[in-house]
Amino acid sequence: MSVRVVARIRPLLKLELDKDTIVTAESIGRESPGSPTVVRIPNPKNNMESFSFQFNSVYDQDATQQQIFDHEVAPTIKHLFNGFDITIFAYGVTGTGKTHTMRGGKSLADRGVIPRLLSSIYRRCRKIEKDSAGATQVEVAMSYYEIYNDKVFDLFEPPEKRTASGLPIRDNNGKSVVVGLTERPCTTLKEFEQLYDQANVNRSTSATKLNAHSSRSHAILCVKVTQTTETTVRISTASAIDLAGSEDNRRTENNKERLVESSSINKSLFVLAQCVEAISKKQPRIPYRESKMTRILSLGQNNGLTLMILNLAPVRSYHLDTLSSLNFANRTKKIEVCEVENEPIFRSQSKPLAATSSITGSNIQRQPLRPIAAAHNANLHDPERK
Ligand code: ADP
Ligand code: MG
Asked: Which parts pass through the membrane (predicted)?
């Protein structure tokens, strides 16, 4: 099982156009400038310092839906058809672009990962059937559910049919399955879109009834691909997950219902991060059983590929939450704190930049980053410097 963690910084929204961008994408070392792998963010306690977090890839505000799909998701599709499971998570604070990344907008260019994934899967199905002259048949079926307060609800069922306790999970030959979950065969992209749109209406309707927002539940779409020949049946699943917002709800809302919600959200996201960490470190024990979400996905139990897209907002109002979600997603990787000596150094677009000393405990790194020298003089006249 392999895990890739990438970050995507969303553009400024209309209401934010007058705000500073404090979260930036950078390249390091020999990498080409066109492929950043570092997210840089100021230290909230000291603007003269900044933190940098390294990921497998980082997408800045200009990245298109097509680029995210082509670079991150399209390469996994051949593995799906070779029998591996693929899992794609969008992780981040509410308002950072998880739903935009996964579902996207209506126009062709705005379509997110999910419709593009389905479109690619159907294209490949047709190619396989054609190339094998009909000897291999491919069927696609989906289920779509949400996990809210650690309970599972079927999104293909209308909200009236929900029971308060949600659907039970049972172990079946070592795999966890949701009992009673609808699985809908779905043969064309059009059919998929109808099902998916209706299910998303179910999601928002029930969210209002439960007096919650969709940002407090995890939405999980599972696409099961079954390839059948005369002698073999091969089943693999692509799961695409729009996670609950990773912000600390306790900071702003402290009524009882919110506390229940946030503790179950925090717990499942915590377990998810632990699983991702254990998988990426190839640890023998993956704590997937400790939350329903990770248990159902059998994360780390199958051979498969996992992609975590960390969505980030570029503005200061998200500063603390952004930092905690960067820390959360990046526990496993190097985190460097860069410190500037007494004199502040700014980069050309007025962002603080710095170098050295580390916060990763034993793994202390002192590594001045390259752009500093070049940026130094150019930024002495930074208009924002008071
Ligand atoms: P989340 O699901 O994480 O709460 P949304 O996907 O709803 O966040 O995004 C919040 C807002 O930002 C929405 O209005 C969305 O259209 C916009 N947005 C997010 N990412 C982008 C992007 N890459 N390009 C343009 N608009 C975006
Ligand atoms: Mg959302």
From this structure: none
